[in-house]
Design a protein that fits this description.
Blueprint (H helix, E strand, L loop, with lengths): L3 H21 L6 H10 L6 H11 L10 H14 L6 H10 L6 H10 L26 H13 L14 H16 L13 H9 L15 H11 L20 E3 L23 E3 L1 H9 L4 E3 L3 E6 L2 H21 L10 H12 L8 E7 L6 E7 L1 H12 L1 H13 L9 H8 L2 H13 L5 H20 L1
Antiparallel strand pairs: 1-2, 3-4, 4-5, 5-6
Helix pairs in contact: 1-2, 1-3, 2-3, 4-5, 5-6, 7-8, 7-11, 7-12, 8-10, 8-11, 13-14, 13-16, 15-18, 17-18
This protein binds zinc ion.
C-alpha cells in the first residue's frame, strides 16, 4: 500500500531528477523528452508529471530550431559528412552556417544518444587521437605559423600550445587572415592606404589571386571572391598524409601557399605531373599564419627556437608588431644592418626562463624574382649568456659599452648583435683590440676597462 508520505517522496525525487535531466540537456529538452529519458533510466513517468515538476522549478525548455526528429537527422548527417571528424562544437557551427542555430550542448546530447564520437584527425597508423587539427612539426616555419595561429585565434592561455587549438579556434584565426587578405581586393595598388598585405603578398604569396597579373582587369568584387575562394580550405581528405605532420591531407599545395615550395607550374623546376606537397588544414593554416609571426620587409624575418616557451613569447610579440605595422601602412622598408638581430636580442632580454635550445633568425623571401632562405643560429649557451647579461642592469650597461666600443660604421651599435648571430668570436677579437688601445694609466677608464675585460672573459667561456 502506498502511503501519502511515499507519494510525496516520489514526487520530490521526480522533481529533482527532472531538474537534473533538464540541466544535462542544456535547457533544450521539453517535458516529453525528459519523460522519455527518465523512463529509460528506470523512473517510469509521463509528460504531464514532468510538466508539473518543471513548472515547480520554473523550468521552460528553449525552443529547438527544428522539430527534434528533423534536428537529429541534420546533426547526424553533418557528423557523417565530415567522416566523423567533427565534434559537437564543429557540428553546431556547421549547422548554424546552414541556418539551423543550435547549441553545442544539444548537438552533444544527440551525438551521445546515438553513440557517435568524433574520431578527430588521425596520423598514419596512430589510431584515434585526442589532438586538434594543428600539430607542431619539424619545420621551423610551420612552427612559427602554428604559434601565430594561437594569437590570431585569441588564445592567451600560457598552459596551452598550438596542438590544443580546437577546430573552431583555428576557424577563428583563418577568418581573421582571410579578412586581411580579402580586404586588399578594394585597393588600387601597393601605394593605396592600408595596402600592407597587398605589398607583402608579392614577397609571401606570389601568383596568388591577391596579386595575379590580371588583377587590375577584374572588378574588386570579383577579386575578393577569388581571394576568398583561395582561402577556403577543402574539408575532405585526399587520401594521403600531410607532408609536414602526417595527418590527413586536404589538398596539394605549392609556392602560392608554402614559402619556397615548388608549385605545379612554376618555371621548369617541378617534375611534370608533380602536384606539389600534400598539406592538412592545420599545416596550411599555420603556413598562412607564418607572416604574422615575421617582421615583414623586402625580406621576411622570423625568430625561431625549439624552446617552445621562448617561441611562444617571440611569436606573440611579433604578431602584435606585425599587425600594428599592417595598420600603419607605408612602404616596406629594409631594416638596417643588424637591426633584426638587435630586435632579437631585445626579445631574448625579455625572456624570463633559461634557454633550453638555440635561437635561430630565419630570413626568407618567396618572391618570384629573388627567392631566398637563410638561417643564422645563436647557440644555446650564448643565448643564455646574453639573456642573463641583458637582464642584469649593471652587466647590461657594460655590454652596451662593449657594443659601442666594437661598433663599425655599417651597423653602428647593432654590430654586436649582428656578430652574435654570425661570428660571435669576432666580438672578442674586436673587443681585445679596442681594450688594448685604451690609454693605460687613465684612472677613470681603469674600472670600466676591468668590467669590460671581465665581461669578455665570461663571454669567452660560452663560445
Ligand atoms: Zn599537417
Amino acid at each position: 500500500m502506498t502511503t501519502r508520505a511515499q507519494i510525496l517522496a516520489r514526487q520530490e525525487m521526480l522533481t529533482q531528477r527532472v531538474a537534473e535531466v533538464f540541466d544535462e540537456f542544456g535547457g533544450r529538452a521539453g517535458a516529453a523528452r525528459i519523460a522519455e529519458v527518465l523512463t529509460s533510466r528506470g523512473l517510469p513517468t509521463n509528460k504531464q508529471a514532468v510538466r508539473l515538476a518543471m513548472r515547480k522549478h520554473g523550468l521552460r525548455a528553449a525552443r529547438l530550431p527544428l522539430p527534434r526528429e528533423e534536428l537529429t537527422e541534420r546533426v547526424i548527417a553533418t557528423f557523417h559528412t565530415q567522416r566523423g571528424e567533427f565534434g559537437a562544437r564543429r557540428v553546431a557551427i556547421e549547422l548554424a552556417r546552414d541556418g539551423v542555430p543550435v547549441s553545442e550542448a544539444t548537438v552533444a546530447n544527440i551525438l551521445r544518444e546515438r553513440g557517435l564520437r568524433a574520431q578527430h584527425y588521425r596520423g598514419p597508423g596512430t589510431g584515434p587521437t585526442q589532438h586538434g587539427p594543428v600539430r607542431l612539426t619539424s619545420n621551423p616555419l610551420q612552427r612559427v605559423g602554428a604559434w601565430a595561429l594561437m594569437v590570431l585565434a585569441g588564445v592567451d592561455d600560457p598552459g596551452r600550445g598550438p596542438e590544443s587549438l580546437t577546430p573552431a579556434e583555428v576557424d577563428t584565426a583563418v577568418a581573421v587572415m582571410s579578412t586581411d587578405v580579402a580586404d586588399t581586393a578594394d585597393m588600387q595598388d601597393t601605394k593605396a592606404p592600408g595596402s600592407f598585405w597587398l605589398a607583402a603578398s608579392y614577397l609571401l604569396w606570389p601568383n596568388s589571386p591577391m596579386n595575379h597579373a590580371g588583377r587590375t582587369k577584374i572588378p574588386p568584387a570579383q577579386r575578393r571572391q577569388r581571394i576568398q575562394r583561395w582561402r577556403t580550405y577543402p574539408t575532405g581528405s585526399i587520401g594521403v598524409p600531410c607532408s609536414l605532420c602526417g595527418l590527413d591531407a586536404c589538398g596539394w599545395y605549392g609556392k602560392v601557399d608554402i614559402p619556397l615550395g615548388a608549385p605545379i607550374h612554376h618555371h621548369n623546376t617541378t617534375p611534370p605531373g608533380h602536384q606539389g606537397q600534400p598539406l592538412c588544414p592545420g599545416c596550411l593554416a599555420s603556413l598562412h599564419a607564418l607572416p604574422y609571426g615575421c617582421h615583414i620587409s623586402p625580406t621576411a624575418y622570423a625568430l625561431h627556437s625549439w624552446d617552445d616557451h621562448f617561441l611562444r613569447r617571440a611569436v606573440t610579440q611579433q604578431v602584435g608588431q606585425t599587425r600594428e605595422q599592417a595598420q600603419a601602412s607605408g612602404p616596406l622598408k629594409a631594416p638596417g644592418r643588424g637591426a633584426r638581430e638587435a630586435a632579437a636580442l631585445g626579445v631574448i632580454a625579455r625572456h624570463d626562463q633559461p634557454f633550453t635550445s638555440d635561437v635561430e633568425l630565419i630570413g626568407f623571401s618567396n618572391n618570384n624574382r629573388d627567392p631566398y632562405l637563410r638561417t643564422w643560429a645563436l647557440a644555446q649557451p650564448l643565448a643564455e649568456w646574453l639573456r642573463c647579461t641583458l637582464r642584469d642592469p649593471r652587466s647590461a650597461a657594460t655590454l652596451d659599452q662593449l657594443a659601442h666600443m666594437i661598433a663599425t660604421p655599417e651597423s653602428n651599435a647593432n654590430t654586436l648583435a649582428w656578430l652574435a648571430f654570425r661570428a660571435p668570436d669576432r666580438i672578442l677579437t674586436a673587443a681585445a683590440g679596442r681594450l688594448g688601445a685604451i690609454g693605460l694609466g687613465n684612472e677613470i677608464d681603469a674600472r670600466t676597462t676591468a668590467e669590460l675585460a671581465g665581461l669578455c672573459i665570461s663571454l669567452a667561456r660560452v663560445l
